Amino acid sequence: MGYRCLLNARRWKIKRHIAFKLRIGDILSGKPNFEGERFTNLELDGRTIVRANVIGNVVEKFESSGEKQYTFVTIDDGSGQIALKLFGDDVEKFKNVTQGQTILVIGLLRHFNNEIYVSPEIIKEQDPKYLLLRKMEVEKTRPKSDAVSKEQIVAVKDKILGAIKNAEEGIEVEKLITDLRDISPEIIKQEIQKFLEEGIAFEPRPGIVRYLG
Length: 213
What we know:
Shape: globular
Distance between the termini: 67 Å
Helix content: 25-40%
Radius of gyration: 19 Å
Number of domains: 2
Order of helices and strands: HEHEEEEEEEEHHEHHEE
Oligomer: single chain
Number of strands: 12
Largest sheet: 6 strands, mixed
């Protein structure tokens, strides 16, 4: 009996995490935190986020055909794309989800293979107008600290460029992502693309980036 009470208490504690209303771009720009190799939460605008509430259009759906059951769905809200992943019996939650639908998703944030994704708990079809409403809702509550944000952006850019400079023979993008775990992989890739376009860096081989000094 004591074990069951403890198990129920733990489940209740998990459910008590706030599902923050976010745009996908915010999730992708957040800082993933880890305990060892285990992802614990996302840090964004001073908030510690474990669960998220997002709305997006379904742009892709993949269902496994083998013994292992899993379904991956990708949604887009105009600020970015994120994967929703379910495994085993939970794939039933995706049964009525089709490409082109607008859906609201509440779920736990997960991190695997340098990618952050959502493990859905609740999925509801929504009218597409809610995409705009969510954008307005999030922007209304966004902290107004443009000066700080610009300083943070410059600091992140300098950190990524510094890591590329220090690798005389070039560095793999995946290694950069692994080494700079306090920066979102999506942000790293965006900055690398800017460096390539601006002629600050080049790709001697696919997936390798080198400083053009």
